[in-house]
Sequence to fold (107 residues):
Amino acid sequence: MYISIHLNSDPSPTWHGVQIFYTNKNEKNKKLAEIMQKRFKENLNSEREIKQLKNMYLFDRITITGVLVEAGFISNPNDRYLLTQIEHQKKIAITIRESVIQYFKGG
Fold:
C-alpha cells in the first residue's frame, strides 16, 4: 500500500479541509479513499469528497493499492495554523492509521 501525503493550495483562501485522491489504476483505490475520507469527516470534520486523479504520471503507474492525502490547504489561514499544531498532526496520523486498519479488516 502507498499513502502519499501532501499539502494542498489554491489561489482562493476559502478552500479548506482534508481531501483524498485516488486513481482507477487499481480497483481497491476507491474503497481505501472512501474509508479514509469518511474517517477524516468523523475525526477532523472535513467536508470534502474523494476525487479521482486524472493523468498523474506517478499515480497512473503504481499498481498497488493507495491514495494521495491532501492534509489541508496551506493557502487557508486556519488550515495553515492547524497544520503547525502537534495535536492536529497527531489527529491526521491517527486517522490515516485507523483508515488503513479498517481497510485491511474489510472496510
